[in-house]
Specification:
337 residues
Length: 337
């Protein structure tokens, strides 16, 4: 009995399709197995080189020492300032957010030195989230401080103050309640949901960036920070030029000029500490799977944001008479040359 050619061809095609589907299934399972093994190996080893670890230890050590001195010094200065001022309230909150970050820094240093996380993974998520919370709250308080100072400079407001101390406390509490209720739980619970992480390895939550929603949020934040920074810098340069033209004869001895220098310190901190991280972040999100060291570079740029804790130290120094005299002497020598 001979089989018809059409029937034979149809059966052969069906068999080939089944084989192809089965082969594709095996290939997909094999790829998934390789990816899981790669992710498992990535999350179970300390990937930072000795040079990277040295940079991270140095950056966080400087931030811890300088930030601690600056926060303590600024605390004494704040006692003499107007407690109803919105600017004073923003700086008080800046001291608080710096102090919270500095509390977590020793745990980071312990990890980078010993190359092993000995605490719980939940606390690792808190320490990791604290760097990001510190960065964006610091950025927020910078913007508030600068806007208030500029309102006074352009004489749109004689002074910007709360009516009562209770109002200042309520405004600060509202910010912190929002952070504690909405931001901290999201960061802590979303970290580590895209895979299993080794309990002895910390600060490796890069796989979350593969999600589309997380990428979109990061790109939005990057664009917002870059645009706001450009606006702040442009306005401050405009104000400095205006002040220098009006006070050309007695520029270095005038209080208004030094007030604008303090404003410039905040903007310089944003440009030096915050902007590089966000610009690199855009590249990191796109190419994080290209080579392993990108994750270490991301950690280095993130450590730069912790150096913003030095702002209060510079802020206090810029208000001292000795600092002003040294700057004036240096500038006079440069002008003579």
């Amino acid at each position: 009995m001979t089989m018809e050619p059409g029937v034979s061809t149809e059966k052969e095609l069906t068999a080939n399709v089944c084989k192809t589907q089965l082969s594709n299934t095996y290939k997909e399972d094999f790829r998934n197995m390789i990816e899981e093994n790669r992710n498992s190996s990535d999350s179970s080893a300390f990937t930072h080189t000795n040079a990277t670890s040295a940079i991270l230890i140095t950056a966080y050590s400087v931030a811890f020492a300088g930030g601690g001195i600056g926060s303590i010094t600024m605390s004494f200065v704040l006692v003499k300032m107007n407690t109803l001022s919105v600017t004073t309230t923003a700086i008080v909150n800046l001291v608080i957010v710096h102090s919270l970050l500095l509390f977590t820094v020793p745990f980071r240093l312990h990890y980078y030195v010993n190359k092993k996380w000995i605490f719980k993974m939940t606390f690792c998520k808190v320490v990791s989230a604290m760097v990001h919370i510190h960065m964006y709250l610091t950025f927020l308080f910078y913007v508030i401080t600068l806007v208030i100072r500029w309102l006074i400079f352009f004489q749109w407001k004689d002074k910007v103050e709360f009516y009562r101390k209770l109002h200042a406390i309520a405004a600060s509490a509202a910010v912190w309640v929002f952070v504690m209720v909405f931001v901290v739980p999201v960061l802590c619970f979303e970290y580590g949901r895209s895979g299993s992480y080794n309990e002895t390895i910390c600060f490796k939550f890069h796989r979350e960036l593969q999600q589309g929603s997380v990428k979109a949020l990061n790109y939005t934040i990057i664009v917002a920070v870059a645009c706001i920074t450009c606006i702040l810098l442009g306005l401050q340069i405009f104000i400095l030029v205006k002040v220098s033209r009006r006070l050309s004869a007695s520029l270095w001895s005038h209080q208004e000029f030094w007030a604008q220098v303090k404003n410039l310190i905040f903007i310089c901190v944003i440009i030096i500490c915050f902007l590089p991280y966000h610009l690199f972040r855009a590249y990191y999100i796109q190419h994080m799977s290209d080579f392993d060291q990108l994750e270490s570079y991301n950690e280095v740029f993130l450590s730069l944001t912790a150096l913003s804790c030095l702002d209060l130290l510079f802020f206090v120094l810029s208000g001292s008479r000795l600092f002003k005299q040294k700057v004036v002497m240096l500038l006079s020598r440069l002008s003579c040359c």
